[in-house]
Write a structure and sequence with these properties.
By secondary structure, the protein is α+β, with helices and mostly antiparallel strands. It has two domains: about 80 residues, no CATH class; about 70 residues, no CATH class. The protein is about 45% helix and about 25% strand. Helix 2 crosses helix 4. The longest helix has 23 residues.
C-alpha cells in the first residue's frame, strides 16, 4: 500500500478514530519522551502502561493525535514485504565491538534483534542497537505493535512459562 503520509490529516477525536479504524488498528501505543506510557484504543479510551504520565483520556488522545502520522507510517513499514538492510551495532561494556547488517523485512529484522538482545539479557553491558536512532524508535513502536503472545514467543522461545 503506497500512502503519502503528508496528506493524512488528524486534528480532532473523530479524525483519530477514523484513522485507527481505517488502518485496522485496535489500539495505538503512546510515547512520552520516548517512554511507552499506554494505549489509546479505537474507541478512544486510554489504557495505562506501567508509567503513570496521563491522568485522563483527554490528555492521551491529544498525544495520540500528535503521534498518529508517525505511527501509521511505522505500521505500513511493519506490514510491508519490502526487503531492506539495517545496520546493527553490538555493544559490550557499553562500547561498540562490531557492526552487523541484517536483511529482511522490518518485521523480521526487528524480531531478530529483539531475540538477540533477549539472549544477552544476563550479560551486563552487552546489547544490540540500531546504528540509526530512527530505527531504534521504530523498533520500540514495533514491539508495542505486535501481539502479546508473539512477544512471549520471542522472549521465551520454546520454553515453558508457568
Amino acid at each position: 500500500m503506497n500512502v503519502d503520509i503528508k496528506n493524512i490529516k488528524c486534528e480532532n477525536r473523530e479524525e483519530l478514530k477514523y484513522l485507527l479504524t481505517f488502518y485496522e488498528l485496535d489500539k495505538m501505543p503512546i510515547f512520552y519522551d520516548d517512554i511507552f506510557v499506554g494505549y489509546v484504543t479505537k474507541e478512544l479510551r486510554y489504557g495505562r502502561g506501567e508509567c503513570r504520565c496521563f491522568d485522563c483520556d483527554k490528555t492521551a488522545i491529544r498525544y495520540a493525535i500528535l503521534q498518529i502520522k508517525d505511527y501509521i507510517s511505522a505500521v505500513l513499514k511493519f506490514r510491508s514485504d519490502d526487503i531492506i538492510s539495517l545496520i546493527v551495532e553490538r555493544y559490550s561494556d557499553y562500547k561498540v565491538i562490531s557492526e552487523e547488517t541484517f536483511k529482511g523485512t522490518y518485521d523480521k529484522i526487528f524480531e531478530q534483534v529483539e531475540y538477540a538482545n533477549d539472549h544477552l539479557r544476563y550479560c551486563n553491558g552487552s546489547y544490540y542497537k540500531f546504528k540509526d536512532e530512527k530505527n531504534n524508535k521504530l523498533s520500540m513502536l514495533w514491539y508495542e505493535f505486535i501481539p502479546k503472545n508473539r512477544r512471549m514467543d520471542i522472549y521465551y522461545g520454546s520454553g515453558t512459562v508457568d
